[in-house]
Amino acid sequence: LIVAGDAGDTHEAIRRCLRDFKAKFRRVFYCPGNHDLWIRESETSKFPDSVCKLHALNALCDDLGVDTMPGKVADHVWVVPLLSWYNPGYDRDDPRPGNVRFDRFCKWPTDELEIWRYFLQLNQSLLADLDSSAKKGTVISFSHFLPVSGLSYSRFVPELVKAIGCLELNEQIKKINSNVHVYGHTHINDVKKIDGTVYVQHALGYDGEHSSHTGLMCVWDGDQSLQPSPYP
Q1: Mean pLDDT, residues 6-30 taken together
Q2: Disulfide-capable partner of 91 in 17, 136, 161, 200 (CB 3.0 to 4.6 Å)?
Q3: β 217-218/229-230 pair status
Q4: At what angle do helices 11-24 and 50-64 cross, to 10 degrees?
Q5: CA pair distance 220, 209, nearest whole angstrom
Q6: Does residue 80 register a pLDDT over 70?
């Protein structure tokens, strides 16, 4: 199971979510989204900033047996979680910082406009350990934020485009020859093939946002068929 972020907005909510997933699936892969790194009032004494919460979530995943690092799931098939954060450069029409702060519950120990660089640097250490044979097999990567232009998002929210993606992330995706990349954040289900990689979002969303019958999506079914299709 791939969980591309936004499992909850408190440590306890995320713990319960991942615990229940782990009880149902042999392997669970997870990366945090923006909501996961919010620090609610109830957590201010526990986490001085969102980087501390990120490391606490990694420790939680270790305790639960949830994968946050690249893992081999079958012969020549790898799943690769990638950390990410957005930057205004995703808005190619106007890459300047905007006036809207979308994640005011996050607290950063440095300039929040530079946080995306920190996340990509953390990925470098993860990818350095990735077996070179993985690049010759099937690679399914995932992140919370959008890594490439052309993916769907709501154009009705002012300045939203500045807080949804990181184009630099796609450089890492291409370096590992990812066949499929799963992403989240915008709550708009989408499947697009761009430059040889299939980009997939299959959001469960908030209550009432999608059909109550929305199920899982299968992105690899054992025969290297990589065109995503609804899971029965």
Answers
A1: 98
A2: 161
A3: antiparallel
A4: 30
A5: 26
A6: yes
Burial of 207 (0-12, 13-18, 19+ CB in 10 A): exposed
Under the banding of pLDDT at 50, 70 and 90, the label for residue 134 is: confident
Give me 208's structure tokens: 């009432």
Residue 76 confidence (pLDDT)? 87
CB 122 within 8 A of CB 84: no
The predicted model gives 138-149 an average pLDDT of 96
Give the least confident one: 11-25, 124-138, 177-191: 124-138
Cβ atoms 2, 140 nearer than 8 A: yes
Q: How far apart are CA 91 and CA 106, in angstroms?
A: 22
* Residue 115, Cβ density class (10 Å: 0-12 exposed, 13-18 middle, ≥19 buried): buried
Residues 6+ positions from 199 with CB-CB distance below 8 Å: 147, 148, 151, 180, 181, 183, 190, 191, 192, 193
